[in-house]
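Arginyl-tRNA--protein transferase 1, Wuchereria bancrofti. Tokens?
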Amino acid sequence: MSNASDFAVQKQHQQYSIVEYIGYNGGGTCGYCHKEEANPTNIGMWARSLSVSHYNELLDRGIRRSGKYLYKPMIANTCCPQYTIRLDVNSFRLSRAQKKVLRRMNDFLQKDVRPNERQKITEYNVVKKKTERSTISSNSQVKRVQDNEEKIPLELRKKGRKKKVLRQERAFQKMRDKGINIMEAQRIRREKEESRRRTLNSFIITYSPETFKHKLEVRLVDVNSSQFYETFQESFKLYEKYQTTVHHNASCNRNGYRVFLADSPLFSDEKGGSKSMALGSYHQQYYLDGRLIAVGVVDVLPRCLSAKYLYYDPDYEFLTLGTYTALREIAFTQELAKERPQLHYYYMGFYIHSCQKMRYKKCFRPSDLLCDRSFTWVPLEKCLEMMERYGERIEAFAPDAPVAENCPIESVRCLYKMNILSYQILLNLPDFKETETFMEEYARIVGPVAREMLLYRN
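Tokens:
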């Protein structure tokens, strides 16, 4: 692959997206449910260099990166189907639980308030009861529990809806009796509620040394900057602590960390240099009183901020740093959208319905899931209904939408012996003999950008 790297270096005045196709990969132990998977679970390729525009297009076809490795989960094969999930930050509304997380952080920063032991015990008992209930092994017991959980709340909900409708009708009748325009009254009420609704940014408070007990700083560090390498050891030590404590992984090392979270193939192909920051790969570092407590790995792309990974200091787990940092990333995306209006989506990676650790993502609304056949976006609520009805393996959330456009195989752009040419021309070269069978698969997976990216062929 050195020829491709040399090519990228020699073409100093123009950078190219260069990928090498790997094909089917995976199998072994699932990283989510820990079951053994006999079949390949993803299709992958190596990216030697990749423009932010092309990567944004690949994200919209269900492809994500891990370091310089690009992969697309195969929903039909994997035991835990993975769906790309995104949030429109312009429409984001805070939930009550998310406001609680923000208030808890602010109380800690301003007053050094921490959850007391009573709260910890209560939370432990709730988790313990849920765990015990989930371990019931008898089928008859499970059926009785499910019957009770399904039937009783449904009846109560029906009664609740009837009462709500009756109350609403009585209120409307009183308004009609007084000659009040109901539509106008509802509009005024909605406007008042909207004005009272607190924005995400209103919870992000500015540090004051006179009144604050703690100082939280969020630093955005380019992975190609000197600042990144100056903080590399500090970041790795935090990652090592997180992996050993939270995931019980004692085998992590500096090289693995670098390949997974530091290496990035991305370069900016954005025209004009007037923006306050460049598109590309960054680490958002969270410093509490000068101590690094969390790092969010993100890619800033033309139409979205893609959250790649988060690791944090387990000593500060009481601050619910997973949710808090996600909210800060949403706020950051909202700020980016002011300068780049088309950049208003927050990509949260993959949503896995059967994985409890992943299901928190559905609390960020309004979100969409990516249909794996049409590559169109479908509202999360509709997708959840389909998964509850048909099971979590849904290959088409938008079954009536046309199948996504693919790239004709002859139009695939290739890099061969330092030359750029279409696959159709490559096949006619006297010194080239096709021995691979993956070209149609590559064109189907990558889609229209296969006409622009360079596929390395030797």
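The longest strand covers residues 42-51.
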